[in-house]
Amino acid sequence: MSIKKSLMTAGATLSALPIAALAQNQVNMSPGVTRVGAEIYDLHMLIMIICIVIGIGVFGVMLYSIVYHRKSKGYVASQFHESTKVEIAWTVVPFLILIGMAVPATSTLLEVYDNDDAELDILVTGHQWKWRYEYLNAEGENVSFFSNLATPQEEIYNSEAKGEHYLLEVDEPLVIPVDTKVRFLITANDVIHSWWVPEIAVKRDAIPGFINEAWSKVDQEGIYRGQCTELCGSYHGFMPIVVHAVSQDEFQGWMSAKRADKDAQIAASSVDLSLDALMTEGESVYKTQCLACHGGQGEGGVGKAISGSAIAMGDLGVHLDVGIKGVAGTAMQAFGEQLTDVEMAAVITYQRNAFGNNTGDVVQPSDVAQHKQG
Amino acid sequence: MGDHHHGPAKGLSRWLFTTNHKDIGTMYLWFSFAMFILGGTFAMIIRAELFQPGMQLVEPGFFNQMTTLHGLVMVFGAIMPSFVGLANWLIPMMIGAPDMALPRMNNWSFWILPPGFLMLASTLFMEGGAPAFGWTFYAPLSTTYAAPSVTFFIFAIHVLGISSIMGSINIIATIMNMRAPGMTYMKMPLFVWTWFITAFLLVAVMPVLAGAVTMMLMDIHFGTSFFSAAGGGDPVLFQHIFWFFGHPEVYIIILPAFGVVSQVIPAFSRKPLFGYASMVYATAAIAILSFVVWAHHMYTVGMPVAGELFFMYATMLIAVPTGVKVFNWVSTMWRGSLSFETPMLFSIGFLVLFTIGGFTGLMLSIAPADFQYHDTYFVVAHFHYVMVAGAVFSMTSAVYFWLPKWTGRMYNETMGKVHFWISFVGFNVTFFPQHFVGLAGMPRRVPDYALQFADFNMMSSIGAFVYGASQIMFLYNVIATIVSGEKVSDEQVWDGAEGLEWTLPTPAPYHTFEVPPKIEATPAHG
Ligand code: HEM
Ligand SMILES: [Cu+2]
After folding, report:
1. What is the number of structural domains in chain A?
2. Residues A96 and A168 in one domain
């Protein structure tokens, strides 16, 4: 044990050297902020150090040969070969070393798989290309929201300087309490994604039609960042994960605020809004959700043109259907769950009146709610 | 068979209709080099985009097409056919046979390859673009969500698979039936042994790959739901089938490379291979184990813990026979009389870098740790150490080693050595830092990345350009040798080389061993 410990400190010092030299360039796995993460890190260091020691032995012998057993130095080859004893030794010894590795690996793995007795369940759903979080609540309504990449296109396409958390920032992070066993139920809506946050030691594939379990118990408050780690289409590199681990009190406060928000939303959807209010709100929703595909002037792109569109100027029911349910098999997603009824009403109103569409139609949140009910 | 004593036919028909193992071997080798350049071009596009954070050159969707085609072209177009070419040239010469057992099929197995790759490459110009779902093409990204060109991809895979199966049946038939009298199995050179075992792996798993793509075809066009939960199927089923092919596939790639190194190291150590028999058994052990470890690529899909444990233990076990191989090569060098011509340099490069790849393989086999490694650049570093520094370095070593025997001309040794050192440094500058960014949290298959990964990525890109450029020197050296290389003065070429191929005249005549050679009573390998 003490040998293992001192080897590890040696390894840690070694790996700290390049860090110092290259400032912020991390070169090693992070032990993170969970017990399991620390165990995984120890396992990683242990195996790496065993490999390095064996490597030094093997390469040392080889290097000695390369330096001293040269034809150019007149070294005459000995013709020895075959030795059953040696062969048995270098089969059995590695086997024993492997058993030594398998023991801690097994116990850590069993811990990773111990999903029982969670104090909080969160449903994580991968979408092309964003995450949706839903806090499961046995007593009342679930709180849920989408978490989108917050890095602006201008930074990605280099017309603006990149911020500190370039590509690792979202509009709304996942919030979890510290010192609490949180269970993640992970699934996907379309293709396979994978939910990974290195510092809280969770990586699990999000598979459409199936639910995977994983858990984490975070020791330290902080902000932890991760990314999707299963190729999921064009914007696979652009669906980060941000986790805010907060104190339990803070978490309760956040949760009540979220619930209140939700109630407010429900209340808001029964209030009628003016055309102006709808247009202002609609424009901002259009910019964040629709513009990338439908163009700044509704001229189209990946998606069809909105300006002059038969749908945006025709039957309202069809227009709402497209917005809420999407168009299967195309890039047009179902926005029904991602937008509140107010937002949906606003953006539909906006599309029907902007870009020269001028239908004069006003769609109210209550129309959306009614349409959703069918 | 009157024309047997003549030389080759003239013009294009020589190549189109040839049944000569040397001609076919040559075509395989040139074809695979062309694919190496094509796949390399895709890699240069990838590294150019990743040179700096931010999107500069290509769009994310096109980037994914590049990573996909890079992987497919390198695995199926460059590495696999190059070793088939080597097998064609060498197996008959090594076992004292006049040609391959099934020469007409041999012609076919080569000639269906170029149309197959043409079909694959043509997807780049199709509506919706080329396949963009990675060389592992996981469903449903590769089925319901794929561009229409996926159908062409499926047929291309079928064609390559048929070619591989025909090629390996031919190799098995040749080795079983065409050995010269006295060439018993345990006297065969290791390169023949490793290919013999590889051919069985190919025959066993290529049909599985064919099954996987056929199921995709059905899901896409005929309304089945093998890989869709909505219809009662399972996307993870795809991964099980793919990796049941895929893991043996990585050994299909590396076993012939082991064979090459096992010929080259003894030759330049002027000393017999330390343990011939144990090398044969280790190869067989690796091949058998390779069938029961596939799910180590799938530790994060949510398998039951018993499954995880089984696949973890089985994968760790592979380190034992792999270790036996490495120890054997090193012991062969020990107290030899070493010299460092280009083939030896590439084989030593192989030995060092493959061993590093083996170590990271062992790290990856540890399931709980793999939860942190999986699908990061750490895995990318691992498999480039085993596939590029493993398979490609070994192949390069083979070309330098046998080229003088094939052509009767010597390559430029200085240029060869320079090629080695540039490749060696370029390779490590490219791939070593990828271990770091992977451990620090950079996922693979992303067109853009966070700022803390910037320095190492730039380093990687610079290394890649250097490694890529050094291949042009290789091409030049090979062509210059063929056209105007100095004639080999010593028929034996390398003083330490053993085996029947070296007993032939130099350059090796068009037809060899029409009369079977006599094999000495003492085993060639001791
Ligand atoms: C000691 C021997 C080896 C062990 C224990 C080993 C283990 C592993 C493991 C566990 C993975 C999965 C990592 C992950 O995705 O998280 C992996 C990936 C991979 N290995 Fe190895 N490996 C070994 C040797 C090789 C060799 C010889 C080759 C090929 C020449 C190879 C090629 C690959 C490839 C291509 C992948 C990645 C496939 C992909 O996801 O695209 N490995 N290896
Ligand atoms: Cu594998």
Report:
1. 3
2. no
| Residue A73 belongs to some domain of the structure | no
Residue A76 lies in a domain: no
Residues A146, A202, single domain; the answer is yes
Identify whether residues A158 and A292 lie together within a single domain. Answer: no
Give yes or no for a contact between A205 and A228, defined as CB atoms under 8 angstroms apart: no
Ligand in nearest proximity to the CA of B371: 1
**CA–CA distance, B346 with B265 (Å, rounded to integer):** 10
Show Cβ contacts of residue A273 under 8 Å, excluding neighbours closer than 6 positions. Answer: A281, A342, A345, A346, A364, A365
Give the environment of ion ligand 2: residues with CB less than 5 A: B 247
What distances in angstroms separate CA B38 from CA B65, B66, B165, B440, one per listed residue? 14, 11, 24, 31
DSSP label at A269?
T
Return the HEC string of B216-237: HHHHHHCCCCCCCHHHCCCHHH
The span from the CA of B342 to the CA of B421, in Å, is 10
CB of B256 sitting under 6 A from ligand 1: no
Q: Count Cβ atoms within 10 A of the Cβ of residue A104 and give its class: 0-12 exposed, 13-18 middle, 19 or more buried.
A: middle
In a domain, A13, yes or no: no
* Claim to verify: residue A257 and residue A180 sit in the same structural domain: yes
In chain B, what are the domains?
A: 27-503 (1.20.210.10)
**Minimum-distance ligand to the CA of B258?**
1
Cβ contact, residue pair B339, A231, below 8 Å: no
Same domain, yes or no, for A93 and A213? no
Helical axes B342-365 vs B305-333, angle rounded to 10°? 160
Domain at A136, CATH number: 2.60.40.420
ipTM for the assembly: 0.91
Q: What pTM value is reported for the model?
A: 0.91
Q: What is the pLDDT of residues B248-292, one digit of tens each?
A: 999 999 999 999 999 999 999 999 999 999 999 999 999 999 999
CA dihedral for A83, A85, A91, A94, sign (positive or negative): negative
